[in-house]
C-alpha cells in the first residue's frame, strides 16, 4: 500500500513515515499543501494523510481540489480539535479525522479500517493460479498451504500482483517497495526477490516470478510447468 503524508512539521511526518514503513507501507511526504496536491493528483496512492494547517494551501483547499479529480481516501490529522473542524473535514469528503497528539496504534488501526472499506469495494481476495491472497488479513497461500511472509516480502508480492503480466524494472521495484532510488551497485532487489521466490515459488512446480534478463521481473502464471523450472529466467 502506498500512502502520501502531507504534513509541514518534519518530526511528525518522520514519526508517521517510520511507523507506516515498519508495517510494509510505502510512504511519500509533502511539506506543504501545493506539493501535496500535486503528488496526490499525479501519483497513485491508496490513502492521503492530510494536515489542516499547511503552508501554500490549507488542508480544506487541498481536499476540495483533490475531490474534483480523484476519490482517493483522505484522512485528516490535525491539532484543530473543535467539533466544527471535524465536521467540516468530514462534510468536505474526508474519510476520517484524528486530533493531534495521537497514539500511532490508533492511527494505524484507523488507516486499516479505511483501507478495508476500499478493499470491500473491490475483491478482498486475489487469486492467481493456485496463489490466494486475502488482502484484508494479508494472508498468503499456495495450493492451500499457508505462506508466511515478512512485511517487506508482502509489500514486494503486492507490487508484483498489482503489475501482474507486466515486466517491471528493478528501478521501479526499488522506488515503490523501498521508496528509494535504485543503485546499480546494490542487489537489494534481487536478494529480496530471491527470498520471496524461496517461499512462494521453490516449493511448487508452477513458477510465478520470472526473471527478464537485463530488464527486471515478470509476475504471471503460465500454462503448465514448461519454461517455469529453475529460476524462471528468460530473455
TrEMBL record:
Which parts of the sequence belong to the Response regulatory domain? 2-115
Q: Does the keyword Transmembrane apply?
A: no
4-aspartylphosphate modification sites are 51
Keywords (alphabetical) are: DNA-binding, Phosphoprotein, Transcription, Transcription regulation, Two-component regulatory system
DNA-binding interval(s):
123-221
Q: Which InterPro entries match?
A: CheY-like_superfamily, CusR-like, OmpR/PhoB-type_DNA-bd, Sig_transdc_resp-reg_receiver, WalR-like, WH-like_DNA-bd_sf
Under which name does UniProt file this protein? Answer: Heavy metal response regulator transcription factor
Q: Give the source species.
A: Pseudaquabacterium terrae
Q: Where is the OmpR/PhoB-type domain?
A: 123-221
PROSITE patterns given in the database record: OMPR_PHOB, RESPONSE_REGULATORY
**SMART domains linked to this entry:** REC (SM00448), Trans_reg_C (SM00862)
Statement: the UniProt record of this protein carries the keyword Phosphoprotein: yes
Q: Which PANTHER family match?
A: REGULATOR OF RPOS, TWO-COMPONENT RESPONSE REGULATOR
Q: What SUPFAM superfamilies does this protein's entry cite?
A: CheY-like
Amino acid at each position: 500500500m502506498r500512502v502520501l503524508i502531507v504534513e509541514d512539521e518534519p518530526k511528525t511526518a518522520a514519526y508517521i513515515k517510520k511507523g507506516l514503513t515498519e508495517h510494509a507501507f510505502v510512504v511519500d511526504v509533502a511539506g506543504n499543501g501545493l506539493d501535496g496536491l500535486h503528488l496526490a493528483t499525479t501519483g497513485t496512492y491508496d490513502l492521503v494523510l492530510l494536515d489542516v494547517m499547511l503552508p501554500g494551501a490549507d488542508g480544506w483547499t487541498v481536499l476540495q481540489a483533490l475531490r474534483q479529480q480523484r476519490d482517493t481516501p483522505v484522512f485528516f490529522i490535525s491539532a484543530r480539535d473543535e467539533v466544527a473542524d471535524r465536521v467540516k473535514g468530514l462534510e468536505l469528503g474526508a474519510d476520517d479525522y484524528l486530533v493531534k497528539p495521537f497514539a500511532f496504534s490508533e492511527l494505524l488501526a484507523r488507516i486499516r479500517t479505511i483501507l478495508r472499506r476500499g478493499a470491500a469495494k473491490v475483491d478482498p481476495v486475489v487469486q492467481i493460479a493456485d496463489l490466494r491472497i486475502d488482502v484484508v488479513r494479508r494472508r498468503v497461500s499456495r495450493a492451500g498451504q499457508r505462506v508466511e511472509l515478512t512485511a517487506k516480502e508482502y509489500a514486494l508480492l503486492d507490487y508484483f500482483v498489482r503489475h501482474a503480466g507486466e515486466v517491471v524494472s528493478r528501478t521501479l521495484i526499488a522506488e515503490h517497495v523501498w521508496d528509494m532510488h535504485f543503485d546499480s551497485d546494490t542487489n537489494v532487489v534481487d536478494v529480496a526477490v530471491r527470498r520471496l521466490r524461496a517461499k512462494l515459488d521453490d516449493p511448487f512446480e508452477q513458477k510465478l516470478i520470472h526473471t527478464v534478463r537485463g530488464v527486471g521481473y515478470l509476475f504471471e502464471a503460465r500454462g503448465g510447468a514448461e519454461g517455469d523450472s529453475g529460476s524462471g529466467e528468460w530473455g
